[in-house]
Amino acid sequence: MTNFRSIFIISIGLLLLLPLANARKKNLNINKTSESVDFIYKEPDPIPCNAIPDRESKGLLLPSIFFSSSQSNYTHGIDISHHQGDIIWAEVATDPNAGYIFVKATEGANFVDRNYKRNFKEAQKAGLKVGSYHFFRPNVSGEVQYRHFINTIDYMKQDLLPIIDVEIHPSRRMSLTTFYMRLDILLESVTKKIGKRPIIYTGKNFYNKYFANGKYDEYPFMIASYTTDEPVLKNDADYIIWQYTATGTARGINGDVDISRLRGNHTLDEILYR
Predict the structure, then answer these.
(1) Average pLDDT by stretches of 10, the chain with 274 residues
(2) Is the pTM of this model over 0.85?
(3) Distance CA 246, CA 263 (A)
């Protein structure tokens, strides 16, 4: 009787644990898939989730009006995506902050910004200097991302160097070797195709953690840091563009917009593609 009772209790326990084991197995399969070289990411970059530039302290995500007086001598620009909705580009062209425009084109393996083609075409039609950017996903092979990006944009029509947006940390299951390998393939493939190095966009803290190793010194950088003072990078590394706010305003655009400016003695000529 005692043995039967023990066997019965053990059997019930196993039945209760079975669903948990299956769920764990399912989650492991999902995680394994998400690390696949050819993983297809179907959603756009999060706002504001794990992909967001650095903020130095509280209260610094300010509208661009707070920066205008001290930065009026610099060339400013904006970057946009479908998050800005329908844009009146003829009005944007009259804005002093629209010295250059970067338009989101692609992300990961297969995401294309739904407003990319229209935004790029209309911005150029309005007489603006326009470039395109790709949002890098570490869990997708560099070759897949390169083909996706270069097949979406018409690189011969770009006014500005393309941007590779790097702000997602490698997962705990991913080695830094894999992270750098995929990024390097993307960067080097774009460089070989267009004949010039693309701009790398990232946050200050992300730069200090992943790019301050000397390996990427030949690339131009756009650094995002929503502060009132220019960010200083590790080893006093130079960079061309500082994105200083994500809550700026621009004519012809409803809602917030990212605004950046050229820094120091850097000029617009340095980021021109043609």
Answers:
(1) 48 49 40 34 38 38 44 86 97 97 97 97 98 97 98 97 96 95 98 98 97 96 94 95 96 96 95 92
(2) no
(3) 17
